[in-house]
Amino acid sequence: MAEGILVFIEQRQGKIRKASLEALSEAYKQAKTAGGNVTALIVGKDVKSLAGTLPKYHPHKVLVVDGADFENYSTDAYANALAEGVKSVSPKYVFAANTSMAKDLIARVAARLDAPCVSDVTDFESEGNNLLARRPQFSGKAYTVFEFNSPLAFMTLRPNVFAVQESSNNVNCPIEDLQVAAGDIKARVTETHASAGNKIELSEASIIVSGGRGIKGPENWPVLQNLCDALGAALGASRAVVDAGWIDHQHQVGQTGKTVSPQLYIACGISGAIQHLAGMNSSKVIVAINNNPDAEIFKHATYGIVGDCLDVVPKLTEEIKKLHANN
Ligand SMILES: Cc1cc2nc3c(=O)[nH]c(=O)nc-3n(C[C@H](O)[C@H](O)[C@H](O)COP(=O)(O)OP(=O)(O)OC[C@H]3O[C@@H](n4cnc5c(N)ncnc54)[C@H](O)[C@@H]3O)c2cc1C
Q1: Angle at 38 between CA 151 and CA 26, to 5 degrees
Q2: Ligand 1 atom closest to residue 237's alpha carbon, by position in its atom list
Q3: In terms of CB atoms within 10 Å, which of 50, 194, 214, 226 comes out highest?
Q4: Domain range for residue 155?
Q5: What's the pTM?
């Protein structure tokens, strides 16, 4: 009988995604309800040393698929690796972080194995030994709770929602190679170029400063970037400014951009359209800076500042720099 949880661990260029560690930590917590073991699966080229860092997140076993064909992400090769991982441990559930890679991979493998798949899970409930997955709908206005009537179910977990639980003790668990043929790779990534834009990955950032049409023009991004640098934040944007060509789409937050859940989201000159809120309203603290006191964003903000963001943001940046200097 299927039991336990298999967690797909995403790595890029030799670095494990924090959101994968969140998924692994949550699997350990949920396995107490669901029963069975937690297995972490890592795929890539020369990833054995990375696999060695995983035991402190409490898996019972780590599976490693290592080979030149897995150096860069390809749907075909990685789907074969994950499907083989599922075959090897027969889990009841498969978890992954809700990233663009996982959205592609998990749906593919779930379809191949004729299993259900729920994306962007933000909470779990339980019914006996079964997990129920909760996810927001309609831009967070409602929640759906899914129950699974199948021996296997796939879920992706929203980044920054679940805590990473790391053991401070020396923890060991078996680390085993899993031999997988990459198979027929129909599309192969030959090169990747990091964009100079976002220094911190938006979907995993714990602080985001976002700009909308209220920043007046692309020449004013440095005003927001200075605040980002002072706070160690990632730079986000509304769709209006992406469509206007002021900034690249990779910065866009919202329904047709990225979903983010930072500790702190600072919205500068953003009106608070429902499609923007869809991407950020699960942020823990929302600060809105807008010159219109009736702007919709204030209804969703923890703190609101009525004023010109090009005036307020530099003052905020100076104050934060002073705080850093005094500490
Ligand atoms: C299918 C669909 C999908 C969409 N997906 C997305 C999405 O993913 N993300 C997204 O963001 N939008 C999305 N949109 C667009 C969305 O509806 C809004 O048009 C967009 O979010 C508005 O961007 P904005 O807040 O920057 O601009 P505006 O709505 O023009 O708001 C600008 C705000 O800045 C304020 N302001 C002006 N000057 C200043 C100043 N000097 N200082 C401070 N405040 C000032 C104004 O009071 C106003 O509130 C989508 C729309 C559709 C139809």
Answers
A1: 95
A2: 11
A3: 214
A4: 5-177
A5: 0.81
